[in-house]
């Protein structure tokens, strides 16, 4: 651990992540990076979330990094949601989404009382997820800056800022009309249904107003990306769209240099590490495709069958992460039975992980040469950092725009050509509205990605080059490393 602030006390960051895997995982990485480079951290969490990340908390405690995990009681009762429903991936029904988000501001008194305790070091800076807009008041009360941590790509953030400022979505009536995004250096076409966020639905009206006000009031923005990946969009967001400081400090996943660190991200893995490595070590370089759709997306049974038959027909070695067949899932015997027969048939080419996979471990193994992904930003960036090209299959939120970045701008992906998001919003239940993508379409995309043709080789070369740039960005002297130092200096300069 380095202490780069001899003149200043270690600035104290209060990190308030959204309780969702795609936000907690990079927030833990960010906390470790900041602490490693001279900051003190209070990481705000809740009992259920802390229990899930206990292995990483233990690693951190043993490393003596100055990070305290502060467990606030999640206000489930006040919000009318079930006990223990403390993370987006524990929301079992769509009608719980709004109460879950409305519960978040109820954490405010507990956070304030923690910060007022005499044993708590004086806070210097809050980094909060943008759904924690209520931290504006906390920052004001303690007279400290508040930065917004954005989960998605800068491409997505820039595009949605432009769309919002121009009120473009209000002018388009047809959800499925294709239109070109304005103020872009390349031609990017989308549908309203693909870019509209949940907060832009009538249901999200009040939250939307507070979220936008919270973004406007922020003293700066922190994003998990790196300057060399999406330079035009980062620059335009910094200068044109925002006019305030933007710290790009990623890919945060690259903080995890040791396999033990990579293996303990998110939740305990559903597969034994030794079994996994033995399987991967037995495969030739770049021969395996990883198929996984993040922490929230679920495929309906008819879609699972199509994916399975496509993988089987392709004869390409695969690791398929099937959360729908997790033994902890709601006893879906139909899926369970089909998966068991499938596993039996494909046991020579494939490995099925039912539940949580150590994704970073898999992606960084040299046997892995492709990734079928839902385009969650963390998964996308982890693939880029590992130099792995993608089959893109977005579902909701920022994922359709992330796909455009991967396929149209970076040219490191093959789209499975899903045009329509589910008719409603996120979560497993809502995905019932998805069109089933036929096995031939899935197989074609997999073959295209994993093939040996010129196009596939160029895609591979390009993503490897981005991977090298990603590693350099995080090293001493790299752009993200520089920005991280600058972020610490910013907080230190506000220290009184
Ligand atoms: N992840 C993982 N194992 C899994 C599923 C997901 O380690 O079985 C991690 C993945 O590496 C990423 C995060 O969970 O860091 C998912 O975030 P992302 O933004 O990709 O998607 P989301 O889950 O938010 O839709």
Characterise the protein shown here.
The chain is α/β, with parallel strands linked by helices and 496 residues long. Helices cover 44% and strands 13% of the residues. It has 22 helices and 15 strands. It has helices at 21-36, 47-52, 54-63, 76-79, 97-103, 108-116, 135-142, 154-165, 168-171, 192-195, 205-217, 231-242, 259-263, 273-281, 301-314, 333-345, 359-363, 377-385, 399-409, 439-450, 454-474, 479-493; strands spanning 12-16, 40-45, 67-71, 125-129, 146-150, 178-180, 189-191, 220-223, 246-248, 288-292, 318-321, 350-353, 368-373, 390-392, 413-415. The strands form three sheets. It has a seven-stranded parallel β-sheet with strand order 3-2-1-4-5-8-9, with helices on both faces. The site of uridine-5'-diphosphate (UDP) has 20 residues, from helix 1, helix 17 and helix 18. Uridine-5'-diphosphate is lined by residues 20-22, 25, 265-266, 292, 294-296, 321, 356-357, 359-360, 376-379, 382.
Number of DSSP strands? 15
The secondary structure category is alpha/beta
**Tally of helical segments:** 22
Say which molecules are bound, naming each kind only once.
uridine-5'-diphosphate
Shape estimate: globular
Helix-residue proportion: 40-55%
Mean pLDDT: 90
Distance between the termini: 24 Å
Strand content: 5-15%
**Could you give the order of strands across the largest sheet?**
3-2-1-4-5-8-9
Give a short account of the largest sheet.
7 strands, parallel
Using only CA atoms, what is the Rg?
22 Å
Keywords: Glycosyltransferase, Transferase
EC number: 2.4.1.-
Family: Belongs to the UDP-glycosyltransferase family.
Pfam families: Glyco_transf_N, UDPGT
